[in-house]
Design goal:
Helix content: 55-70%
Radius of gyration: 23 Å
Low-confidence stretches: none
Strand order of the largest sheet: 1-2
Mean pLDDT: 82
Order of helices and strands: EHHEHH
Strand content: 5-15%
Shape: elongated
């Protein structure tokens, strides 16, 4: 999912013409440097927008998939193309490793619970 946040001076139709429907971030607050950029652009009456991309479990995965998605969207907006297949492949491999590790942790936790139940003593 991709979100756009824009100030009141930016014409949203410029983006809609190239991308179609948009998910607009409808909040008064965007934190960090990018939020500050948007705030100051409006303060000086300059049109500006920002693109927010989806985040994942890990910053590394976020970096691979988020960067490739952002490049694709910006490429559509500004008519350029960047091959992001390498980024996507690295992100896919890392995501698979993380999912495998999470599955292993879940199995270990289940085995530990079974052992705890089986090791109980009966006093009767």
């Amino acid at each position: 999912m991709n979100l756009f946040a824009l100030n009141k001076y930016y014409d949203v139709n410029k983006i809609k013409e190239k991308l179609g429907e948009l998910n607009l971030y409808k909040s008064n607050t965007v934190v960090g440097m990018i939020g500050l950029f948007l705030y100051y652009s409006q303060l000086f009456k300059k049109p500006a927008y920002l693109l927010l991309v989806e985040t994942y479990l890990s910053n590394e995965v976020n970096g691979y998939f988020g960067a490739s998605k952002a490049l694709e969207i910006l490429g559509k907006l500004y008519d350029f193309q960047v091959d992001t297949s390498d980024l996507k492949e690295k992100g896919k491999k890392l995501k698979e490793r993380l999912e495998k590790d999470l599955d292993m942790i879940k199995k270990l936790e289940e085995e530990n619970k079974k052992r705890e139940k089986g090791s109980g003593y009966y006093y009767g």
